[in-house]
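To: structure subgroup
Subject: Chain for Friday's discussion

All,

I'm putting the inputs and outputs inline so they're searchable in the archive.
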Amino acid sequence: MEVPPPMVSGSEPEFVDEEWLSKRVEDILSLYRTSDTMAFRLPPTAFVRCSRGGKTRALKEIAKRLKSIVHASVIFVSFNESSDISSWEQVDPLGALCRRIAFAARRNRKANYDSDFAKADVKPEQIVEWLGRDPRILLVDEMNNCNSLLEKSIPSTNLAEFLKKNFLSKEDQYLVFSSHIVSTVGQLSSYMDSGSSRPIAIHELPLIRNVTNAIKIFRWPELNAGKALFYGLVPALIHIARLEELRKTQHLSFQKVEEAIDVCVKDGLVTDKSVRYLLANFVDGEKRKVMKPLHQFMNTAEEEKLRWIPIYMTKVLDSLEFSAPSLDENIRVALRRIVKLFNEFTTVEKLSGKAWESLFLLVVIIRVVSGKFDEVILPLMNNLSMDYSISFNQFIDTDQKVLEDIVDVDEIVGCFTEPDRYPHVAIYQPTNASFPLFDLIIAVYGKTGSRKLYAYQLKEGKEIPKHNTSLVMTEFEVCVLVRGQPSQGETRSKEQWIIPSKSEIAAFFGESGKHWTPEEWNKLMIGQTFEKGEEP
């Protein structure tokens, strides 16, 4: 059977990672040539990426490459783009799939697609007869758009069994699909085999690894590391951002974000606890902690960890603040600050000292609000219960001075006033460049009002402060020097500073934040090779 290849628009930029494409095609062909047996259940291949993350383009490129290599029917169908699954098709997802397979095989691509498609009634038996015994590979784009896969039912089971029988049960048959949520992958697998789930070969789509190359690919001279990271290093999102800048129109719709937040609010999912869990996900990546409607706006990393994409998550956090007025005021204030700090990075060309301070503050706020303390950099838990309030540059009596005018540590500490409730975490960020010793001070008040101080200095490189600070530092519980280029060894102490190691800093910044540290930022700028299995 000769099936026309999927078309890629001539206006699309070149595919960003030929090495990734070749490797994925090699993996698919290896499985395609393998038989499904009782001892080895042939795993289909799934590509997972956020909404508007380039899944359609990737599957089209894979389909084209497969067609040039293998003597088989390579069939690309989509539940997205012009063939977005309609509400009237949701009751019969197998019929919707068969209809798309039939239309993918047609030679007359100029026919009235919409009119003919709506009238077509294609039976599974017809597709089976058409397939015959010929070798075939089916690629299904946006499988997550089949709503029936959300729960086990006769329609979802019929679809899964059809895919298993006709694209996995024999050698020279294979199934590839994409989804923007991992749950689709697991559900489809469980529906195929009663009693236990069939394994799935899950792959992420490629990310931008070199800003210089990305500037050439997207013809965007103004692209910098800050912008690239803000868009999650996702090529499709960067391409959309470039189109928006060129055409002065909005191409990336956030309607899905608003709809997802509406569902969360309507279903009673938005609570102080669930928002804290969402923030904690920035650190631990745990999927189970995130409200399910929000999964589609995050990247799926190794071991099904969810990783933040700031362009989406800023909209999520912004919408949560305005859509859920019952949220605790501490959380609402924190959400505003997190969004502001993320947005500032779109204008950062390189991770300067100021940007490094803001990035560290962002992670501190996320950890303090979510209660994700650690034992080295933010060891606050021993002095707190979870019912604590939070403030930012508040509770200061500067005697007519503004915070920016204070240059002495003793003076600023002496200006701290008692909070209006206990326990409490007060975060202070002196912004004056003439305040040389600390970039961040945290005052922790216990239940009885006892106070402990924690201080931080942020250095982009490997420097250790040369100030004679021993007397001042005795007032603080912990003084931490967080370097942008930390040592590879263990966390150590020097001249009353605790100096976290590279691994300790990566752990502090968490599943999402560890890819924003100055070291990783610099790798992105120079295109340095990343460690095996590691993303930038």
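Points worth raising on Friday:
The chain has 19 helices and 14 strands.
The mean pLDDT is 84.

D.
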